[in-house]
Design goal:
This protein has 573 residues and is α/β, with parallel strands linked by helices. It contains 19 helices and 16 strands. It has a 5-stranded parallel sheet, sandwiched between helices. Strands 5-4-9-10 form a 4-stranded antiparallel sheet. Helix 2 crosses helix 3, helix 5 packs antiparallel against helix 6 and helix 12 runs antiparallel to helix 16. 46% of the residues are buried. It binds one RNA strand of 77 nucleotides through strand 4, helix 6, strand 10, helix 7 and helix 9.
Length: 573
RNA sequence: GGUGGGGUAGCUCAGCUGGUUAGAGCGCAGGACUCAUAAUCCUGAGGUCGUGAGUUCAAGUCUCACUCUCACUACCA
């Protein structure tokens, strides 16, 4: 029993997220959070929308809305999408909240007091037509290397060469197309990461339970040497740069903090908002001098976010010299790809969270995405694979098991858990199987090995089918009803066990199963683990306990459906 | 260009610090059963572990080179 703080990388405000975003941080964090709650841990799962930065301003502009109105609407849309996917956030906040403004400014000020912030002048492209500075990738022009005409200021899509916007021939604004652009001097705050390099190295080396992917990315950056990083931008939308007394810092009118400075701080700020709204104490989660030293902090993210979570944010925390909680365990994912290519919001390639639920129930997506989580490499999403895992694993193995035994129990035993029968080799085999597999399953959840946890879950479901084959109550029924009762009784206990085990992954179907089995809410947790308790699991329903046969849990995905979706979503283009 | 991840049965992936006949699921073939969403259960076929060298008594597992692929490369987030 321990306190576990969980965060998933903040989804950017710029549109409803696609399945790749979902699969790479929010969904696994949710599954982990649910499993840890079932195991009796005190869990706090925090997420929020990441709302600042140029893309948010431009997206709002494109929609013809003010930035604040746009973010309000998109925050609600993302919150709703999360709810529909059954993401069990304890709090879904916003990086634009008042608390985050305050906390971000606090961190900036204390870092400055520690001598870790420096003001420097740099050159940046300014677009007169747009009336704004442009981030490198929003400047386009001809590539000086290969002549590609739509090279971006940071990198050429034609030849892949890294560029500086100054190098571009005939540069123009990617926002308006205007060629009226110029280089201007601009002053910004730089966080002196280089000073903290050794502290970070020490911390990263001590880290345990990080995937290979995460530690290798962190070490790579450290080996190259951390550069000081600018933490402000020339933008209107964001957190203003204020002095301790609340006045705007001189020379920083019209500037805000860089989103990657304030976004991770929003993990803390969102916790403060959660505490304020629920009468809770946020400090026991985040302040190691006020109870958080015993909290385990677990972060979930895609591989693109690893550097920010292993280096940038820890720099902020360590540099403050204050007693803030650092991440303990970190889970990084590769990408889910769309038929091997990138999901793309702007090109509308792939399936997005809101569309997905018009196609299939959230349980289907949750199972498929977690069972095929991109843990060791990128994983291609295809409709065929989706159909396969849903039909085979959910419909055939689990759904059919529940259906066959509950229907039989209702047909032959009046829907009541029957009494009698002798223990045979079938029951002994089953118990051995469960006492081997359930501890493994729990271990996989604890170590956040999702594919393995799903494979184990599936194997446990399959063991139920195999048990029924061995016990064959329908055969015994002709000669020995008591022995048939044994198979049915164990089978019904398995149904409720399967429902209990399925809760983190497919919460809706699990609830349907447990409701049909008349299992009360307080008997759905995972307080098992010892072998005695596991043997009790298959004999826990009272004799005479009434059960129902639920409606078909997982209607199958038909070939016609796949064909329609493939056409609608245009496969691999 | 640099760095990192990945390249293992038709497909998706396991294989820890090198050690008997390289594993799972799906798919495929055959069989069993008939309680069930024609579901389930059993058996089987199928792999020179990206390529080429090297280290070792022994390499999918270590080293080097090459190759394909994906990502990151600090001002998109």
């Amino acid at each position: 029993m321990s306190k576990i703080l969980i965060t998933s990388a903040l989804p950017y405000i710029n549109g409803v997220k696609h399945l790749g975003n979902l699969a790479g941080s929010m969904l696994p964090a949710d599954v982990y959070a649910r499993a840890m709650r079932l195991l009796g841990h005190e869990v706090l799962y925090i997420c929020a929308t990441d709302e600042h930065g140029t893309p948010a301003e431009l997206a709002a502009q494109a929609e013809g809305e003010g930035t604040v109105a746009y973010c309000n609407a998109m925050h609600e849309a993302q919150k709703l999408a999360g709810e529909k996917f059954k993401l069990s956030y304890d709090y879904f906040g916003r990086s634009s909240s008042a608390s985050n403004h305050k906390l971000t400014q606090h961190f900036a000020n204390i870092l400055e007091e520690k001598g870790l912030i420096e003001e420097r002048i740099s050159q940046q492209v300014y677009s007169n037509a747009d009336g704004r500075f442009l981030p490198d990738r929003y400047v386009e022009g001809e590539c000086p290397n290969c002549g590609f005409e739509k090279a971006r200021g940071d990198q050429c899509d034609g030849c892949g060469k890294l560029l500086d916007p100054i190098d571009l021939i005939e540069p123009y604004s990617a926002v308006s197309g205007s060629k009226d652009v110029e280089i201007r001097d601009t002053n910004h705050l730089y966080l002196k990461q280089s000073v903290l390099s050794d502290d970070l190295k020490g911390w990263v080396n001590k880290a345990e339970g990080w995937p290979h992917l995460a530690s290798s990315i962190a070490n790579k950056w450290l080996a190259e040497g951390l550069r000081d990083r600018s933490i402000t931008r020339d933008l209107k939308w964001g957190i203003p740069v204020l002095n301790r007394d609340g006045s705007v810092r001189e020379g920083f009118e019209g500037k805000v903090f860089y989103v990657w400075f304030d976004a991770p701080i929003a993990y803390i700020a969102a916790t403060q908002d959660w505490a304020a709204e629920n009468g809770k104490d946020w400090k026991t989660w985040w302040r190691t001098d006020e109870g958080a030293e015993n909290t385990k902090y677990v972060q979930f993210m895609g591989k693109d976010n690893v550097a920010f979570h292993t280096l940038s944010f820890p720099t902020t925390i360590l540099g403050s010299g204050e007693s803030w909680k650092l991440v303990d365990r970190l889970k990084a994912f590769n990408w889910v790809t769309w038929y091997g290519g990138k999901f793309s919001t702007s090109q509308k390639r792939g399936v997005f969270m809101d569309q997905a639920l018009d196609i299939a129930p959230s349980d289907y997506w949750r199972w498929h995405l977690i069972a095929n989580a991109p843990e060791s490499s990128d994983t291609a999403f295809t409709w065929d694979e989706f159909q396969l895992s849903v039909n085979s694993d959910l419909a055939n193995v689990l759904g059919n098991f529940v259906n066959r035994i509950t229907k039989y129990a209702c047909g032959k035993f009046e829907g009541k858990v029957p009494e009698g029968g002798e223990i045979t080799a079938a029951e002994e085999w089953l118990l051995e199987e469960l006492s081997k597999r359930i501890p493994m399953l729990i271990n996989y959840y604890e170590t956040r090995e999702f594919r393995k946890a799903m494979a184990e879950t599936r194997a446990i479901w399959a063991a139920g089918n195999e048990y029924l084959t061995q016990a064959a109550p329908w055969t015994h029924y002709k000669t020995n009803i008591k022995q048939a009762a044994m198979g049915v009784r164990i089978g019904l206990n398995l149904v409720s066990l399967f429902g209990i085990l399925a809760q983190p992954i497919i919460p809706d179907a699990a609830a349907k199963i447990l409701d049909a089995m008349n299992i009360s809410e307080n008997n759905r947790s995972w307080n098992f683990g010892s072998l005695e308790k596991i043997s009790y699991l298959v004999n826990t329903l009272p004799i005479g306990h009434e059960i129902n046969s639920p409606e078909v849990l997982f209607p199958k995905i038909e070939d016609d459906d796949v064909e329609i979706w493939t056409k609608k979503f245009k496969g691999s283009d």
